[in-house]
Design brief:
Elements: E1 12-16, E2 21-24, E3 30-35, E4 43-44, E5 49-54, H1 56-75, H2 81-100, H3 105-114, E6 120-124, E7 129-134, E8 141-142, E9 149-152, E10 157-161, E11 179-181, E12 184-189
Antiparallel strand pairs: 1-10, 2-9, 3-5, 3-8, 4-7, 5-6, 7-9, 11-12
Helix pairs in contact: 1-2
């Protein structure tokens, strides 16, 4: 028996694996105060600070939290149980609002210890990778609808190859391909 090999040569392009791409947003309205990551192509670690946002809503909510904290501390010694419970419930409600805005529990603890508000909210990367697109700039007004950065983990990428229709019958799912790049002669990837 003789095995016939049919070779298809085509061109393709390297693309980001969409499952390893993150669009970075903020959950508060505000203004970009400072960019810590300021150019496309920059590598960032997971948890790295990307930018700081000044948000009047966030400042007001921190002030509300501190007032609720003081109220709870005063009323915790109160003989009126319903007053103490009400102040605890208010404090927890404001705390939940801060958490929903992606304020980290450690930052809320710091707010309690310091007893004074911080002017800005830091936005952190939830993925390690490269900035493939940067839309944020200093002084920009931002809302939750705005994408600030696209960050991609490029440890695994896709190769999107173009195959002509007349070759489709020769291709099956799971078939192996070989990739070579003109700028790296002699090197192949399967």
């Amino acid at each position: 028996a003789m095995t016939l090999a049919h070779r298809i040569r085509t061109v393709g392009r390297v693309a980001v694996d969409e499952r390893l791409l993150r669009h970075i947003h903020t959950k508060v309205d505000g203004y970009v105060e400072h960019l810590h990551v300021d150019y496309t192509g920059q590598f960032v670690k997971r948890g790295e600070k990307l930018l700081s946002i000044y948000s009047p809503d966030l400042v007001a909510t921190q002030q509300e939290y501190l007032l609720a904290l003081r109220g709870r501390n005063r009323l915790s010694e109160s003989a009126v149980a319903s007053a103490a419970e009400g102040s605890s419930a208010l404090l927890e409600a404001v705390r939940q609002r801060l958490l929903l805005w992606d304020i980290r529990p450690a930052d809320i603890e710091q707010l309690e210890k310091a007893g004074q508000v911080t002017r800005t909210l830091n936005v952190f990367s939830d993925i390690g990778g490269y900035v493939v697109q940067k839309m944020a700039y200093q002084g920009m007004r931002v809302t939750p609808a705005d994408t600030l950065y696209d960050i991609a983990d490029l440890s695994r990428v896709w190769v999107l190859a173009d195959v002509y229709e007349y070759n489709l019958a020769s291709i099956t799912l799971g078939m192996q391909g070989v990739i070579s790049v003109a700028s790296i002669p002699g090197k192949e990837w399967k």
